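worker-3 :: picked COKA1 protein
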Amino acid sequence: GLSQYSSDPRTEWDLSAYSTRDQVLEAMRNLRYKGGNTFTGLALTHVLEQNLKPDAGARLEAEKLVILLTDGKSQDDANLAAQTLKNLGIEIFAIGVKNADEAELRQVASEPLELTVYNVLDFPLLSSLVGKLTQVLCTRIKEKSNKDNTDIPVNTGPQLSPTDLKISAVTSKSMHLAWSPPLRAPQQYRIVYYPSKGGSPKEVVLDGAVSSLQLSNLTSHTEYLVSVFPVYDTAVGDGLRGVTSTLPLSSPRSLRVSELSHNSIRLSWKAAQGATQYLVLCSAAPDGAED
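worker-3 :: tokens ->
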């Protein structure tokens, strides 16, 4: 499977899209490079939410590996998102090119770092990593498969997944989330939320006995994507997703002008609910500089 990212991650193809090496190579040849920003945390969250799910071709019994390829320092918190993946048993390999931040690569990658962190000076040099990386990946999969003797639940329906996400009491700064828990209570819930037009994802971890959450300190007049994931010992249930916009801040109304003199005017207006201060700007019409 492959996803590209800048400020908005994009799935190019799912794990189940191709079944032969030639098909994958052909897809790579047709791939169009996506330029832009470097929101690595958002990208890793996208991989977890979108690419490592059964309906995207992820098999619950298979080892999960993520190879991160980046040529810059992340503009959001990549470490938090990476830690979430690693806590779920997903192994991360970090490959840096050109301006990548090696300290960040080492934070994001799984242990042992001597096997999971790579850095090259330019894109053509990536070819020098292919042989070694392939060998390391295959070896790690075999090692992990031999260690994992636990039975991983295969049922990802209502037994493991919450349902009926409701978003209510939306204000300019907050919203309330509630959902129906799965038949089998999870150990924890992971709630991930972020602005749909790009922004640093934030995460809240709740005890599995809780099925509601108040999100606060949000940005006004902003569309938010919200995901709720149940986390078990050996699996992650299907997540619930929702989209809601916070309300705009209330505005002052009924602006009136009075008491005009040669060098002054009086302004009055109806108060804006919740405002603690007002900023008043004036300029000489039509093209005067703002005073």
